[in-house]
Amino acid sequence: MPRKVAAGPVDPVRSSAVELFFDLVFIFTLGRLSATLVEEPSLLADAQAVIFLLAFWWIWYNTNLATDSLDCERPTVQILIICVMLGSLLMSINVPDAFGDQGFVFVSAYLGIHLGRTLVMALYLRGTPAWRRPVRGVVWYLMSATVWFAGAAASGGEARVLLWACALAIDYSGPVLGWPVPWLGRARANEWHLSGEHLNERYRQFIILALGETILATGNFYRLSTRDLADTTAFLLTFWTVVFLWWTYFYRTTSSLAVKIDTAVDPYRLNLRASYTHLVMVAGILLTGIGGELMLKEPDAQRSAGNVVAILVGPLTFLIGRMIFEIWVFGRLTRHCLAAVVACLILSPVAARLPPLAVGLLGAATITVVAIFDLTHRARIAGEVNPVSAGDAHRRHSA
């Protein structure tokens, strides 16, 4: 089966304009999540933010799988993506209120997106070996829908968090288990024909989107501050950290992901691993922005363990996500990344006694050291690919 169902004269690799348009809603989404956590920091708010992030990522990830199979130049497919965008926007608007009186609106939008998209996929894929994919998806989303709506009907915030966490566990475990459905069985590798270049580009675009939103949010927070020396230092530390997060991702992390997906025996499972680990990296970027905003709020405050959780854990989470990504996808362990993670964990008790700016400096320094080692590794690999031996150089000199 070709990658694009009912394909026309479209580029099979590059992202389409409607996909980039669809991504815009997630700038608003990430902003809403970070603003909610900064305004009301608490364990319950943290748990709710995790629920929101998992729900939005699952929409983005599965929509990418749909656009990887469909021709995005067709008006009907574009309308589908725009409808997903509208539903995602409705969910984003109700981010702080979904655990209040807007729970049914949030759940209806979430399930409407998934069920609508999978039904359209079933229509487009009929007559191909892949038609079982969306049919299994419909069954699993109907199964999780009962738990989603039970959570929306729950009166307490803690009960809603617990039930929605169970619903997300069903959604996320479906592909891991192969979407088993009676009479259809489990999904098989030959049902998936993925484009590594397209999916790799989509991951890179979302990382850019998350980094950009973090810079915009931090810049806006700095604009509203007193802009004294402490505020300026906090702003520059956050900007510095975000820049080197970008560096470590684009100069090392996904350089061979496209080839790896294209040559994998089970490309869907490999892409699923890439998705889960990218989710961790996006969470790290989001936490880095939140830490920057908290530094701007109280740059000189002497805070306790909250310092570490809010500021240092952002780069740490990103590095953990990158490390797991490289192990799961490429089967390699980057030793300097592991060393940076271990160092952050060891220094966390010390950092808990430091003011926010000092903790921010520690996080920025950690990600910078990793970036420097990445650059050194890149230069060494480039030299090995096209080596110039001393003997060759001597012969040319003699000539």
Automatic annotation (TrEMBL):
- Kindly name one Pfam family recorded for this protein: LtrA
- The residues forming a coiled coil are none
Q: Which UniProt keywords apply?
A: Membrane, Transmembrane, Transmembrane helix
What are the TM regions of this chain, as residue ranges?
A: 20-38, 44-63, 75-93, 105-125, 137-155, 161-185, 234-251, 272-292, 304-321, 357-375
Q: Which InterPro entries match?
A: Low_temperature_requirement_A
Instruction: Please state what the protein is called.
Output: Low temperature requirement protein LtrA
What organism is recorded for this protein? Answer: Micromonospora ureilytica
